[in-house]
Amino acid sequence: MEILTSCNLASIAPYVPDAGNPWDIAKVKHVYRRLNYGATDATLNIGIIGTPSELIDTLVQEAIDTPNPSQPVWGFWNINNYTDFETENPAQINEWYAQTSIEFINGNLKNRLAFFWFNHFVTQVEVYFYGPYLYQYWDLMHTYAVGNFKEFVRAVGTSSAMLFFLNGFENTNNSPNENYARELYELFTLGINNGYTQTDIEETSRALTGYNHFGGNVPGNPISFDASTFDDSVKTIFEQEGAWGYDDVIDILFDQKADLIAPYICEKLYNYFISPDTNQNIVNEMAVTFLANDFEIAPVLEQLFKSEHFYDIDATGLVIKSPYDLTTTFVRETGFQYDNTDDQFTNFIIYLNQITGQNLFQPVDVAGWQRNRDWINSSTLAGRWEGMRILLYNFWNFDEEQFRDFAINMTGNSNDPAIITRTIIDFLMSRPLHTEADYDIAITVFRWEIPDNYYDDGLWNLSWESAPYQVLLLLFHIIRMPEFQLK
Predict the structure, then answer these.
(1) 414-432 burial, b if ≥16 CB within 10 A, otherwise e?
(2) What is the pTM of this model?
(3) Is the dihedral angle over the CA atoms 191, 197, 202, 205 positive or is it negative?
(4) CB neighbours of 31 closer than 8 A, spacing ≥ 6?
(5) How far apart are alpha carbons 226 and 454 in whole angstroms?
(6) Nearest to residue 333, comparing CAs of 105, 56, 109, 485?
(7) CB of 361 within 8 A of CB of 124?
(8) If you average pLDDT over residues 235-249, what whole number do you get?
């Protein structure tokens, strides 16, 4: 009997709501937290109008149709375009950090997938430290985010950022470099020690030679192929013999190892969107779909997101939010406004996420962030609490009244502190709190210093001068709850 490491035993069959398992706001919220970075209450109420399948079709199609981020004027600059490279290049990189952080707040599934693939096909901006290469790589992640995985792999290996990061630009017929060949198999397509040998790596590195020259021999242009540095001798890769080159490697890999690539990639998608603990039966079903659709990504996502497995109660509230999940989801779900003059808000978000472990374009190593439990330790947890507290003050200083408006919109202008507290907590959490005592503590926080008789006699309401501050206090309490770290 196969042992499952995930406690979610629901099937990959499409979820069909019924009286015992209805389509409700909690499930719509789950969709938006996993496929996006949350949604406002108004968006959730729109999402519930149709069926689960219709909502997933809409979100996936939206991801397919969404244009890539706008190209900056410097997106394909070479060194000759700069008047002061030492000043202008870092400024371009900082500009792209800020733009990308705003894209998360305003984006959709395509943005989330691009970030997922960036952590799969890892590069680090500090290695190549060149604004145009950063833009070009981020653009590539969006181009194939919901596209064909085989063609994605083909495009990644000849991108300038990757050629720099894994030393492909140093890989020549006179001095082969194995770095990219190794990671192509070990991290990008097959998994560690899964279906390849050291000889395959060595032979593949020879087939990947030749990408050594800047276009037009001008530094900063995309790195181009040079036949004079290509090893055109016979190589043997996965027992296939020929004078193979770059495209041959990709074709042979997907022809000979498709049955290993599909489950490896599907497991990574499963771990990201469902659970860090794998249900191998579900992964195998996804892999069948991946293979049947010639490595198109969208059909696998649609199958997973429409499944009973995705909507099972054991799929909710068990993934630890990344720093960007934590901050971006809170901004989106509350709808709080902020002052972003001179990128001051986005720069704060970037800084906060960096100190809690997620430097946007600088994954920890070539294997990327391992996510989930790796996000939390005594230092980063304290940093999360303090960062979210400062974030709330940022919203407060911009407009105190939006805290009142948030509570009124969430609760239908209730004057019952218990209803207000429960509604806001349940909206910001993936699951209800464990005990009534947990709610009672939060209700006490919200009631603040207002005498009990004002609540008992129905005199207090959200129009009171103190109401915005009471909402702020409640949110201070919520951001320190363990459940708030989960999605």
Answers:
(1) bbebeebbbbbbbbbbbee
(2) 0.96
(3) negative
(4) 47, 52, 55, 56, 59, 305
(5) 80
(6) 105
(7) yes
(8) 98
